[in-house]
Amino acid sequence: MCVVCGCNDAQAPAPAGDLHYGHNAAGVTVHGLSTERSIQLEADVLGANQHVADHNRAHFKAHGIAALNLVSSPGAGKTTLLCATLQRWREQRPEVPVAVIEGDQQTTFDADRIRATGVPAIQVNTGKGCHLDARMVADAFARLPLHQHHDGHEHAQGHQEGLLLIENVGNLVCPALWDLGEAAKVAILSVTEGDDKPLKYPDMFAAAKLLLINKIDLLPYVSFDVAHAIDCARRVNPAIEVLQVSATRGDGLDAWLHWLGHVAP
After folding, report:
1. Which of these, 102, 159, 161, 201, could form a disulfide with 172 (CB 3.0-4.6 Å)?
2. The sheet that has 184-190: what strands, in order across it?
3. 221 phi-psi bin (left φ>0, alpha ψ -120 to 50, beta other)
4. Residues 6+ apart with CB under 8 A from 72
5. Architecture of domain 64-261
6. What are the residue ranges spanned by the domains of the chain?
7. How do residues 55-102 score in pLDDT, each as one tens digit?
8. Nearest Cα to 263, choosing from 154, 206, 185, 205?
9. What count of Cα atoms within 13 Å lies in the side-chain half-sphere of residue 135?
10. pTM summary value
């Protein structure tokens, strides 16, 4: 029993002296709360979020909109990749409107970069929050021209009539748990990061449908093993798809756009 709060979450050190605070039924230790209370709180909060996420998903499907949740660590190049993606999408698929929901803790810097491409974007600042949630996405989507564009007429089920790209807050932990109503999560891993990151943050890579290995133009200058990164990702998610891209040089962008064009709403 924990001598500080009286709960049963105190973790004994491993033989090497390491401490593991996630080896319980809740998967996390919150000092002052029992494992049972932590589980109940998570179930209540995530359950309320799931209700809104399910509504978002049905709404997107009815509008023929493929919504993608882009997740990564800070500095992985999400916004630069997103800008390059939007520019090429508008050149190749001008008949399919696209919009962005941009999540950050503060500032409108990234949303301003998106808007500079001519694509509508709504900034969502989360304050101290480390992720977007389904209600934030619902509120932001209601303000986008993409929403108004599809109001008032019938839609063909399963036909992509619009693309919504949601750039989540830079964080490989919290966003893994939160369903936004997206068709898929896309994890972005830069070659400037560790190639073992999928094993260090398994929940996120297990939740992702696609892994984008970004900044491959820098491979000659970094010690990043692409094959090892893919192997690590598939150890936690055998079904994950993988594409290698460079936002600055353009490598892999056509394959990425092809993937985006075939995501069912």
Report:
1. 201
2. 121-125, 98-104, 162-167, 65-72, 184-190, 210-214, 241-244
3. alpha
4. 78, 170, 172, 187, 188, 189, 190
5. 3-Layer(aba) Sandwich (3.40)
6. 64-261
7. 999 999 998 999 999 999 999 999 999 999 999 999 999 999 999 999
8. 185
9. 7
10. 0.84
